[in-house]
């Protein structure tokens, strides 16, 4: 087992090195910092903008927008997905809306949101709508996959609807809830920053990316992008750690 873990770490490190070396090779071949700056140049730019208080304010504001939109969408997805799994009528009722959300271009949704909301709320709204179908689908699948024999046994023992949900349905769909959280959180960062690029809030990672692009500061664009990747990676790492602890927790 230890050898397997070490092997995975070596391959992971090798993948990072391969990516950086490929990036360096392409930047040398292209020979233009505007088109593709070198890795070290982008890293220095990240250190440079990282010393400014406005950088950390932007990171904090983007984090709050992403988590706020994700949390609201996740809770709504759990409620709606549970209802759809229990009530086929509700599943049919909400199906057209989900089809629209799954097929509507993100760019079109952002542009519409910019007409409807103030700048700071645009990323939150877009994040909510894009994450909702992911959570909903996972929760619905979890409810549908519940063993019908367990539900029949609960009914036989006189358990009410609420008791059957909390004691049978909820534990059975926990893996689907965790999968939905992982997928939804990754999507939340992407759509929030994409919405920030267009809506241009005062403090935002997306605003930093857009400003750098307009000024042809490609190194700064990559630095802001790297910061966004680190934020997303750290949040998913924390969620994965909490998920692992929860799954290892003995069932009482």
Folded structure, characterized:
The chain is 85% helix and 0% strand. It is mainly alpha-helical and 252 residues long. Helix 3 packs antiparallel against helix 8, helix 5 (106-116) crosses helix 8 and helix 9 packs antiparallel against helix 10. The longest helix is centred in the C-terminal third of the chain and has 39 residues, at 161-199. The mean pLDDT is 83.
Task: Summarize this structure as a short list of keywords or feature phrases.
single chain; 252 residues; mainly alpha; 0% strand
**Dominant shape:** elongated
The portion of residues forming beta strands comes to under 5%
User: Please, what is the average pLDDT?
Assistant: 83
- The total of helices stands at 10
What is the CATH architecture term?
Answer: Orthogonal Bundle
Could you give the order of the helices and strands?
HHHHHHHHHH
CATH superfamily: MetI-like
The number of domains: 1
CATH fold title: MetI-like fold
Radius of gyration: 22 Å
CATH class division: Mainly Alpha
DSSP strand tally: 0
Specify the biggest β-sheet. Answer: none
Specify the structural class.
mainly alpha
Stretches with pLDDT under 50, minimum 5 residues: none
Q: What is the helical fraction, as a range of percent?
A: over 70%
Q: How far apart are the first and last residues' alpha carbons, in Å? A: 29 Å
């Amino acid at each position: 087992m230890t050898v397997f873990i070490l092997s995975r770490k070596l391959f992971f490190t090798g993948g990072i090195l391969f990516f950086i070396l490929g990036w360096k090779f392409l930047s040398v071949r292209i020979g233009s910092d505007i088109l593709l700056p070198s890795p070290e140049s982008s890293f220095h730019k990240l250190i440079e903008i990282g010393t400014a208080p406005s950088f950390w304010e932007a990171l904090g504001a983007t984090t709050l927008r992403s988590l706020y939109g994700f949390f609201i969408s996740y809770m709504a997805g759990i409620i709606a997905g549970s209802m759809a799994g229990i009530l086929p009528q509700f599943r049919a009722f909400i199906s057209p809306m989900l089809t629209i959300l799954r097929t509507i271009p993100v760019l079109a949704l952002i542009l519409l949101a910019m007409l409807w909301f103030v700048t700071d709320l645009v990323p939150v709204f877009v994040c909510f709508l894009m994450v909702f179908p992911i959570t909903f689908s996972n929760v619905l699948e979890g409810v549908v996959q519940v063993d019908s024999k367990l539900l029949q046994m609960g009914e036989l023992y006189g358990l009410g609807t609420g008791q059957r949900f909390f004691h049978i349905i909820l534990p059975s769909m926990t893996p689907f809830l965790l999968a939905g959280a992982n997928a939804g959180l990754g999507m939340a960062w992407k759509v929030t920053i994409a919405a920030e690029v267009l809506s241009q809030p005062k403090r935002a990672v997306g605003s930093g990316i857009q400003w750098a692009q307009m000024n042809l500061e490609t190194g700064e664009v990559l630095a802001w992008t790297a910061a966004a990747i680190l934020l997303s990676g750290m949040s998913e790492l924390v969620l994965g750690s909490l998920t692992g602890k929860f799954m290892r927790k003995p069932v009482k």
